[in-house]
Amino acid sequence: MAIDLDPGKAAVGNARLVDAIVGEMAGGVMGFDRFMELALYHPEWGYYRKPGRIGKDGDFLTSPAIHAMFGWAVAGWCRWAWEALGKPGTFTIIEPGAGQGQLATAVLDWAAGRDDGFADAIRYVAIEPNAPGTDERVTWATPPIEPVANGVVVSNEFFDALPVRLFETSGRGPVEIGVRWDGETFVEARMGVCDIEDAPTQGRFEISPRAYPTMRSLCGLVERGAVLTIDYGYPQEELWAPWRAQGTLLSFYKHTSQENPLIRVGEQDLTAHVNFSELEAATRAEGFATHGPVSQAEFLAALGLHGVVESVRGQMEEYFIRRRALEQLTDGAGLGRVRVLAATKGIEGVPPGFEAV
What we know:
The longest helix has 17 residues, at 68-84. Helices cover 30% and strands 25% of the residues. It has one domain: Rossmann fold (3-Layer(aba) Sandwich). The protein is built from twelve helices and 17 strands. The chain is α/β, with parallel strands linked by helices and 357 residues long. It has helices at residues 15-25, 32-41, 63-66, 68-84, 102-112, 118-121, 211-219, 236-239, 276-285, 296-303, 305-310, 316-329, and strands at residues 30-31, 91-96, 122-127, 138-141, 148-156, 165-168, 175-181, 186-193, 204-207, 222-231, 233-234, 250-253, 256-258, 269-271, 274-275, 289-295, 339-345. Helix 4 crosses helix 5 (102-112) and helix 7 runs parallel beside helix 9.
């Protein structure tokens, strides 16, 4: 005898999260940025509360998960900043969105392998409210964070996970796209027409309301030092180019990208490319000098990561592991197209990796 096996809201994603979102909608329309915030950051059932998101068994790969030598490159860049500041006795590295701490561990291991005082000066603060790691050398913290005298803020694929507002152009101007519950699933709903300066004239696009103030907040964490931002994105004129008519909003599940953010709620990652023009403006507003953005492939090449691979040519197994990792980190169709932006304050000259800009 057949029985009722309809999963109901569980077919849409995490049933408890779906219930929470539907309850907040109260029969109305929710802005997409709020929907994205709940889907990713709900304190109990949001996607970023889910363990095992990153890695070959997760939904996506980030550069620190490819190989520790990405962290070694970041560590070397931070060491340059420490030297440029006169080797202060305390040097704080702050990482927002640190995840389980793969980047932090690689940076600290690299520093521990040197005998120049850098490791003794480092205090590593990881800002991660969701599923923090276990490296005891790291201070796991949640906002607010007190500013430090000397240090570097490092963010890797942090800004592209901030909630975005979603728009579609029309003859009357950009129309905001919201989300509603139709009784069985989440669907799009048109909201009001908005006045947005320099907005695209066709297709879809996104705006991250939090990107600019968040970058200003990150700059405010260091009195002297740098902010190093590594993320998917483009300057505004390229991000909103006419040929990018579908926008950049994507979902990732089991290493597969697709364009429907309204399914697998709480079980898939949501991301949208970063407007680097806004980030640059935010750093300048805080009195920082900006450098870049450059591609991650260009940045790592300029830092000399190829030499880290060649240095173990006599150890064939390790050599091929590193060579394969370098290929992934610099692949122009993948991680190599990630952009890197540096902002410095109290440091003279152009930072390593940005000399060709």
